[in-house]
């Protein structure tokens, strides 16, 4: 009986211990889970500059890194004048397909999300701006068909004939205007679809494309273009803490970011190098240097320097143009223009090839990049002027040196001895031996010369292996040499 009571007491003690350990373990697990959720970092990406394929690659790698680190939010700090439209579409698609919520934050004060940046702002799950920033102007200038339609829309106050006039202009305009109008409609439809997806102001989004409208941060918040205004990333993180974000039709994420660690994934050397090489102006100069270097190497083979520099620059230029939207006609005209400029030095065309080459080069430069596919960036006119001046100067210097070389007297061989002087070694009336450039030659004169060993005499010709000589008049011959 006593034994059975001891067993019951022992069972109750074990039960108490088991329940105590279980409750402690569950509490610890709950605390650990809360801390683990709270330790999910916020990954910060920084895009500053034109939107080019370099930043598309950077965004892709940044999102991959955020997924590896189990980030709960990706914060993109944006400051851009615009960029390549195809690249912008790729980046917007990647943002929309992301399983991690993405916030696009136009910062710091003075920054802007112009043109292509507006599309990224609309594509984000969370859109924010700092005071003193602006967004909009999403229409490439080359795509605006003269502004005629916009003017008519403003002037038609009664609105009765607006649609009719717009349709008339579409049908009656030039082919270029019709193509520009189609491009605008396509771009406007794209930004409207982003606005509908993120439940933002679609009407203003279309105006940003069709009328190049812009807003400051306060106006953007009032008109439903953005969700927040914050001075810096820390203030923004405080504001969005606890926000529930729909990342897909059947998945929502509640942000717990107030005390989350911040992981900055800055652009590395690869991104910076690609950003430089995909700048249209840099790619253009690399192309010009490359072609000029190969032309100089072709006409003066063996120097190697011009050929090596030209080849490297040309490869880098072709790599850049592989990702940039270029016009093949413009590229061909640039190359032909440079070839014509170089040919002017060797073909006597009285400037026709040189002038024609310069004109072809300038026209080709203006057509080189497809401006309709680039929003807010492009080839500067100053770059065209500098490259034209450089190429013309380089070819002009080549022509000058060529004519100078042609006028120079031969300084080697037998021809170089004519009209130069020799030193008498021995002489007997009309025949003797003379020294020229350390060599002893037989010499003969047409008349008897009164010269002695060591005197200077003038070489006037050559007959087989005998030099024809005459008296050397120091004053006359020095003036002739000058």
Keywords:
five-stranded mixed barrel; alpha/beta; OB fold (Dihydrolipoamide Acetyltransferase, E2P); 17 helices; 3 domains; 482 residues
Question: Any overview of this molecule?
Answer:
By secondary structure, this protein is α/β, with parallel strands linked by helices. It folds into three domains: 34-267, Alpha-Beta Complex (2-enoyl-CoA Hydratase, Chain A, domain 1), CATH 3.90.226.10; 279-407, no CATH class; 414-481, Nucleic acid-binding proteins (OB fold (Dihydrolipoamide Acetyltransferase, E2P), Beta Barrel), CATH 2.40.50. 53% of the residues lie in helices and 18% in strands. It contains 17 helices and 18 strands. It has helices at residues 2-38, 53-68, 85-97, 116-123, 148-155, 162-172, 175-198, 202-210, 217-222, 233-240, 269-277, 280-299, 305-323, 328-343, 352-367, 381-407, 474-481; strands spanning 42-48, 73-79, 83-84, 102-106, 112-114, 126-129, 134-136, 214-216, 228-229, 244-248, 251-254, 262-265, 374-375, 421-428, 431-436, 439-445, 456-463, 466-471. The strands form five sheets. The protein has a six-stranded parallel sheet with strand order 9-6-4-2-1-12, sandwiched between helices. Strands 14-15-16-18-17 form a five-stranded mixed barrel. β17 and β18 (466-471) form a beta hairpin. It is elongated and about 145 Å long. The model is unreliable at 30-37 and 142-167 (pLDDT under 50).
